[in-house]
Amino acid sequence: MNKKKWLIGGLGLLALAAALIAAFNIIVDPFGVFGDRFFNWYSYNMTQETSVAKIAYLERHHEEYDSYILGSGSASAYLPETLEQYQDARYYNLFTQSCSAAEYQALAEYLLAHYEVRNLILCIGPEEAQASRGPVKQHAAVTGENRLAFYLKYAFASPGYGIDKLRSRAADTVLAQPFDQFLAETGCYDRRAEDVSRLEETAPEASLPEAGDEAAALPRAAECAQAVAAISRLCRAQGVAFTVVFSPVYAGLWDLSGSDTLRAYKELLADAADYWDFSSSAISFESRYFYDEHHFRNAVGDMVLAKIFDEAAGCAPENFGIRVTKETAGAPADFSAADVSRYTADVPVLMYHHFDQTAQNETTVSAALFEEQIRALSEAGYQAVSFEEMIRYVDDGIPLPEKPVCITMDDGYLSNYEIAFPILKKYNMKATIFAIGCSIGRDTYKDTAFSITPHFSYAQAAEMMDSGLISIQSHTYDMHQWPPYETGEQVRKNIDRFADEAEEAYIAVLEEDTQQYRAEFEAQTGHTLNVLAYPGGVYNTLSEVTFRRLGFRVTLTTQSDSVNTLVQGLPQSLFALYR
After folding, report:
1. Which of 98, 501, 505, 564 is deepest in the core (most CB within 10 A)?
2. Beta strand spans in 78-117 (E)
3. What tens digit of pLDDT does each residue of 314-325 get?
4. Whole-model pTM?
């Protein structure tokens, strides 16, 4: 009898443990399959199992969307917000970690059967024609798996997944973490940090497959074309606008397959559906257009969409994107190296501060020396350019002079107006002054009696700007403080975050400083501030992301012996410019 009681008790404990595990997994929901109603942290769930979590998210939110993007990870560069500028539609990016066109077909069938769909964009490349990389986990709604079995599998999964989610929640920050890489509302990767990082020369070749890899023969080309044809038929039958995009491909990947193999693949695709081909252009040969060998930058995705929707994409290479049909598919593919120097420009940026008629030191330049330097630049054929011209070069491809130089001055001293401005006018040289907002027109430190080097007034700033040679931009309103004259416990000598400062509080400080300066500056001058020089050259990734969100197009720091390379079509090449 005692043995029977022990057995019943043991089974009861096992049942209780199983119930507790299930309850824990349902509440914490590390993959989002139960609706994640307690945490609503789908960016985390999508990082764990992308396809499963995205469908789980759409089951709750599909009424917010009527158009979808399908493809592998590279399709993440096609941003819903960009598409919605061209179409009256609400897009969701349903890219997956799969490179299987058959899985794209399954997703398309699910979408068309269950949701309102007006537009479907399918993004493909060589990966879909390569050897299979193995199945990717899909939601039961897509696969047709028994729903009860599907949910039980996740309810009784190892609780370690849920524990990891709780730990990650405690360590979560504003920017994407290894465990939190998605923007759940759009389905895209969170590339905010990468899109403000310095564009240095990268080497995607380091992780390319070895020559002779079986994938290079594109063994699944016919299978891919069949799936594209099937999706096309489904869309025609339901009146859904269907667009196929062959995405930009890094040149090193093409070298592994050969032109005959690629041409045969593209002919199969053209038999399946008309498509846009962006696979090879000058972009393919410039590594800075890519995050890595498989993923091109979001800005390149914007250029692709501009070309498709007949907008003026002036920054794109002239051979960027062609419409392919059955009749044009047999044209020879040109994968020869392009002259990427036609789409990049090196612009040195000079930095000055104060000027004096005679004296000079580390931050003060005499009038005679300044004129000597400006005259030397002019005689050597340099032309001073504004940041507005640099922005137009990156955005629209409007050429810069053959020998550009950018002249800047920090702080906004009166000597900029009295000494530097007349010299710049004499040689017709442009310059940008980064003024401290709270010091404009002052010769004392803010609301104190402490004397400081005088700063020019708004009236003098207007006179300089009216000349067409001078731009006034931001050195922050009050984040370049002088410790001996401050009374608070913490002094912002520069824009960096205090060691004990919460991210949200830090972001709020940057926002408030920017809003105060812009409001005052625009009221006084009628101009806006969209370029910022970091006080002391100090910055961090969160400040870069915040200022980009606030509409700044250029930021500048300090580092010696560096070259600033602007890349047409890549706005991030204007961030953290070195002086």
Report:
1. 98
2. 91-93
3. 678 777 888 999
4. 0.91
